[in-house]
Amino acid sequence: MSETRTEISSLGEFGLIDHLTRNFEIQNASTILSVGDDAAVIDHFGKQTVITTDLLIEGIHFDLMYTPLKHLGYKSVIVNLSDVYAMNAIPTHITMSIGISNRFSVEALDEFYEGVYAACSKYNVDLVGGDTSASQKGFIISVTGVGEVAPDKFVKRSTAKKGDLVCVSGDLGGAFLGLTLLEREKKIYLENPQIQPDLENEDYIVGRLLKPEARKDIIEFFEKNDIVPTAMMDVSDGISSEILHICKQSNLGCRLYEEKLPIAELTRQAAFKFGLDPTVCALNGGEDYELIFTLKQEDYDKITLNEEIAVIGYMSELEEGCKLLTKGGNTFDITAQGWNAFRG
Ligand SMILES: Nc1ncnc2c1ncn2[C@@H]1O[C@H](COP(=O)(O)OP(=O)(O)O)[C@@H](O)[C@H]1O
Ligand SMILES: Cc1ncc(C[n+]2csc(CCOP(=O)(O)OP(=O)(O)O)c2C)c(N)n1
Ligand SMILES: [Mg+2]
């Protein structure tokens, strides 16, 4: 960020909006009308439209003490696009609404928007509107994402079938360990500001938390290989919580295998350093922004080629419950211990 500090009041609300949106170029033919009117107009030319919204609140979802604003802008877009991909859809548009306290300067918001625009450009999404308000305390972000999908190719949480394979993209638990590390360093710093944070060799887990990506590649892989998952959702609260949503909404049980859970070596090492069980971090940690989905067994051969997809179990009868088979051969009930903003 530059050294100068421009007060938001010097631009005013409309001047600020013009300033933040002045250089943005439209990338999608479906964007008929963008920023500058009462609403945007989108024409999806015969496709179906998906729409999803997310709220991010300072102190609940992020801590500005260790979150650079550019990363926060990027991540705010990513968490939303991840929900669009989880419907098997391609995101095309977002709106971005912000509530800002007078702590923020125009330069600080410029930095946040640099991240927003970097994500829009990487994922080919147009920012077509939003809202801007003052907030008494704390930074509030609301993102709405719109996407398109071929008629009736969207994938719900409720349509898994008995015997389907349970699959997950990427690896799990890294973001939770990144958060654990940054919270620890914050505490040490607050107790003794002379001590510099020790983040050496922790780039991977910190990156998983601060700069997540959405799994566009997996949705493109499905399209290319003629795969339509039977159910899907994104992993924001931890897979134990997410698989229970799929089971409950599909009226089924499941059996997952501990040894099949994809955990990066660097995540495993970080877990051991903190005295945590990597499996527990993978199951209950949040913010992986991976995709969990179920597939017909006959699609198995198609996915073995993709190293970014792990088969972690299968769907069973409702009466069999939702179980985890451990490496030691024990069976546990999967419980929803994922992240919950309302847990005290
Ligand atoms: N305040 C609300 N009013 C209406 N619908 C809501 C509200 N909060 C959440 N929902 C809807 O409830 C469903 C589950 O929400 P959530 O668990 O937040 O999903 P996700 O993890 O994908 O963001 C979604 O369909 C969401 O749109
Ligand atoms: C200060 C801080 N506290 C907690 C977290 C952890 N965290 C924030 S959001 C989240 C999960 C997803 O949030 P939610 O609002 O449930 O998103 P949704 O499932 O609706 O997409 C987690 C684990 C964090 N990153 N930073
Ligand atoms: Mg939500």
From TrEMBL:
Mg(2+) 2 binds at D54, D83. InterPro entries: PurM-like_C_sf, PurM-like_N, PurM-like_N_sf, ThiL-like. GO terms for molecular function: ATP binding; magnesium ion binding; thiamine-phosphate kinase activity. CDD domains: ThiL. One of its GO terms (biological process) is thiamine diphosphate biosynthetic process. Mg(2+) 4 binds at D38, T52, D83. It catalyses: thiamine phosphate + ATP = thiamine diphosphate + ADP. ATP binds at Y113, G130, D131, R157, S236. Residues 36-149 form the PurM-like N-terminal domain. The keyword Transcription does not apply. Its EC number is 2.7.4.16. It is an enzyme of class 2 (transferase). Mg(2+) 5 binds at D237. Pathway: Cofactor biosynthesis; thiamine diphosphate biosynthesis; thiamine diphosphate from thiamine phosphate: step 1/1. Mg(2+) 1 binds at T53, D54, D131. Keywords: ATP-binding, Kinase, Magnesium, Metal-binding, Nucleotide-binding, Thiamine biosynthesis, Transferase. It holds the Pfam family AIRS. Mg(2+) 3 binds at D38, D83, D234. Substrate binds at H61, E287, W339. NCBIfam families: thiL. Reaction mechanism of ThiL seems to utilize a direct, inline transfer of the gamma-phosphate of ATP to TMP rather than a phosphorylated enzyme intermediate. Catalyzes the ATP-dependent phosphorylation of thiamine-monophosphate (TMP) to form thiamine-pyrophosphate (TPP), the active form of vitamin B1. Belongs to the thiamine-monophosphate kinase family. This is Thiamine-monophosphate kinase. It comes from Panacibacter ginsenosidivorans. The gene is thiL.
